[in-house]
Design a protein that fits this description.
heterodimer, A: Rossmann fold, 2 domains, six-stranded mixed beta sheet, 14 strands, 40% helix, disordered N terminus, B: ABC transporter involved in vitamin B12 uptake, BtuC, 71% helix, globular
Chain lengths: 375, 350
């Protein structure tokens, strides 16, 4: 017994030794390959995610972008990520650790990383920081965002045609302009084909909380809504609609698989073009501080996987609107635009510029209730 | 058939050894887990338990993470020793952070030096007030403190959301639900310059000493525990069970509130919708892992902080999923509970 155990122990020692020497042999031999250009160290790129990569929505979309960038640049870059990083004091530690680990380009993909990232950015001047959906920048930190409202508008067109109760539901996350914009765009899109449409909103105050998202969806459906959209990060709303026999959309990523019977379409974010641009610039040395706000035109936003239950003419309307937005012929924020308090916000034919869009904190006519805390 | 049979005298020695055994078991199962995930177990364990401690920065980060865990666990351990099942340290921490944040927002560069002490006191008062609701409902209406304190945690979270979305929202913040950043005088000074570690860790250890003396040496501490464990005996001796409820909850509230204040006026410097990352709940594990003993809580808070940070590092260094943190915490708690079971029972073949 003792012998058997010892020989097992010895055996594992031998195995370990082989493993170690084996690894030694696999070490690259720089002398053999150093004929062409000297091989440079790959650019290390890190991503901090607020949710799990398997959320099927927001974080999944970012991670898909990361993988595509990795495919594009091959061994010129090396990427890593940390998922489920809370928007608390933890974020700063994670982001700083990424910088100390030699990452030269760091992406933070949620608003709550703005202050922590700023703090780390002042410390690591040679590292470039990219913050999604924020507004503060520094010498080595820039902001990027997407015009998700374009997708919400097109989804609204489909919703306006598909609703039987003329009541849409929206599961909203945190009351910031980005989310309020999407509620409005969804409603405006629907009203463009069905003026009777009203939108009910439930706020869950979280980006990723499938339980709460699902409860909110149930509440909306019980309140008469029959076509749901969400600005949260998981597929819970779609799954709830599927269970309760209503219709819904995918958001951020293609969510068809989560509710094939309920899934009208997915308003997706394609982060790959931006990540390729940013990493490419960092590699070339042309990276500079700017604010990038990409939409359908740049290929960052799309509405895809329109379901079988959507009639051909509705599908055509959606596709046409997409083409118009892509060509710059259509602006979602075109007057007359009236707030749900009855006040005119944009006069007829006036167009909202980016400054206007960035500050949208009111509901348009047809959305029920008030934006939380907007007194 | 196997059956669990109560041991006549549970071993005291094993009672203290159990957390260590549980930690070792976690390491063993962790190694197996790493191996099945295709990672070298030695490398995995190194990243988890050694890498976070290799640099000054790493050590300070572990220390920073320990502060709220330790403070909440000290308070909870006291409650549990008094047989008061407070699981609402999270809410007490959050409300402490809110009140501290409110005081911190009033600060200006003209405020008196040492203003941060007011911020910390405010945090303690906030946490105490929140815990007092639970104490009052239990004392006056015999309401179950488990439910009340848990539910009040959610109420505290919603109160925070209301404030950062409403009256305390930074007017220049593009409507994002964050308060203004606090003035420097309201912030807890740094202990190690250039890192995020504040004097909070010193305050936490001071609290530890005070609680330790209170539990082990003071009459009030003794009364508290007797009232908890043997209410009848306590009544015979003229000790009040009501006193136990109030005192343990108020002390726990003060400590948890202090933890919240140290968090918002420490590494964060502003009120944010989720400033806590669940320390009040994690501290329940810390308190049990620490055998409800102040000294044990230090060990347990250290291990928990390490697992949090090690989990992050194993993501960035080894490409492991975030769930690894939860799995390690789960393994640790399960091992401890198993060890506890075998301290009190033995397996008998029937």
């Amino acid at each position: 017994m003792l012998n058997a155990r010892r020989s097992l122990f010895l055996g594992s020692m031998v195995a370990a030794a082989i493993l170690v020497t084996g690894c030694g042999k696999e070490e690259p031999k720089p002398a053999a390959k150093a004929v062409g250009a000297p091989k440079t160290e790959p650019l290390k790129v890190a991503f901090a995610y607020v949710g799990p990569v398997g959320d099927g929505g927001w974080t999944f979309a970012h991670d898909t972008g990361r993988k595509e960038a990795e495919k594009e640049f091959g061994d010129r870059i090396k990427t890593s990520y940390v998922e489920n990083v809370p928007e608390s004091a933890d974020a700063e530690r994670v982001i700083r650790d990424m910088a100390t680990q030699g990452n030269k380009l760091i992406f933070g993909t949620t608003f709550g990383y703005m202050e922590p990232m700023l703090k780390v950015a002042t410390e690591f001047k040679d590292v470039k920081f990219e913050h999604a959906t924020g507004y503060k920048t520094a010498d080595n930190m820039r902001a990027y965002d997407v015009r998700a409202y374009e997708g919400a508008y097109v989804a609204g067109i489909i919703a306006g045609k598909m609703t039987k109760t003329n009541t849409l539901g929206f599961v909203a996350s945190i009351p910031i302009p980005e989310v309020v914009r999407n509620i409005n765009a969804y409603t405006l899109g629907a009203q463009s084909v069905n003026p009777k449409v009203k939108t009910k909103v439930v706020w869950v105050n979280k980006w990723f909380d499938p339980g709460k998202e699902s409860e909110a969806a149930t509440a909306l459906i019980n309140g008469g809504a029959d076509v749901l959209l969400q600005n949260t990060d998981s597929s819970a709303v779609l799954q709830t609609a599927e269970k309760m026999g209503k219709l819904a959309f995918g958001w951020d990523s293609n969510m068809t698989a989560y509710g094939p019977k309920a899934h009208l379409a997915s308003a997706i974010i394609n982060w790959a073009p931006y990540y390729k641009k940013a990493i490419g610039e960092a590699l070339k040395g042309s990276w500079k501080v700017e604010t990038n706000w990409w939409g359908m035109k740049e290929g960052a936003i799309d509405v895809i996987a329109i379901g079988e239950m959507v009639p051909q003419d509705v599908k055509k309307m959606a596709e046409e609107k997409k083409a118009e937005i892509k060509e710059g012929k259509f602006n979602v924020w075109t007057g007359p635009l009236v707030g749900n308090d009855g006040k005119e916000v944009l006069a007829k034919d006036a167009k909202g510029d980016d400054k206007f869009i960035a500050g949208i904190m009111f509901y348009v006519r047809g959305v029920e209730g008030k934006v939380p805390s907007n007194k | 058939m196997l059956r669990l049979e109560a041991r006549p005298i549970p071993s005291t020695l094993m009672g203290y050894a159990a957390p260590v055994i549980a930690l070792l078991a976690t390491v063993v199962f962790g190694s197996i887990l790493f191996a099945t995930l295709g990672k070298n177990p030695v490398a995995g364990l190194t990243v988890f338990f050694i890498t976070p401690l290799e640099t000054v920065r790493g050590l300070t980060e572990v220390g920073l993470k320990m502060v709220p865990l330790l403070l909440c666990a000290l308070g909870l351990a006291l409650c549990y020793r008094s047989n008061v099942w407070n699981i609402g340290a999270e809410g007490q921490l959050v409300v402490g952070g809110i009140v501290a944040g409110g005081v911190a927002l009033l600060a200006s560069p003209a405020s008196i030096p040492g203003y941060f002490l007011l911020v910390l006191l405010a945090g303690m008062a906030g946490g105490m007030a929140w815990a007092a609701i639970t104490a009052w409902l239990r004392d006056s209406f015999n309401a179950n403190e488990i439910l009340v304190s848990l539910m009040l945690s959610y109420v505290g979270g919603l109160l925070l959301l209301y404030l950062v979305n409403g009256p305390w929202k930074d007017p220049k913040g593009f409507n994002f639900p964050y308060s203004k950043t606090f003035d420097a005088v309201a912030m807890v000074p740094k202990l190690v310059p250039g890192t995020r570690l504040t004097w909070g860790i010193v305050i936490a250890f001071l609290a530890l000493v005070v609680i330790w003396i209170f539990v082990a040496r003071s009459k009030a501490g003794f009364r508290l525990q007797v009232a908890g464990h043997a209410p009848l005996a306590a009544r015979f001796a003229g000790f009040s069970a009501r006193e136990g409820i109030w005192m343990s909850l108020l002390i726990c509230g003060a400590l948890a509130g202090l933890a919240g204040a140290l968090e918002v006026a420490g590494p964060l410097g502003q009120l944010t919708p989720q400033f806590s990352s669940g320390y009040g709940f994690a501290a329940i594990i810390v308190a049990w892992l620490g055998r409800l003993h102040p000294g044990g809580c230090v060990f347990a808070a250290f291990v928990m902080a390490l697992i949090y940070i090690g989990g992050e590092l194993s993501q960035s260094r080894l490409g492991l999923p975030a769930a690894i943190t939860g799995v390690f915490q789960g393994m640790l708690l399960l091992s401890l509970l198993t060890a506890d079971t075998f301290i009190h029972y033995r397996l008998r073949r029937v």
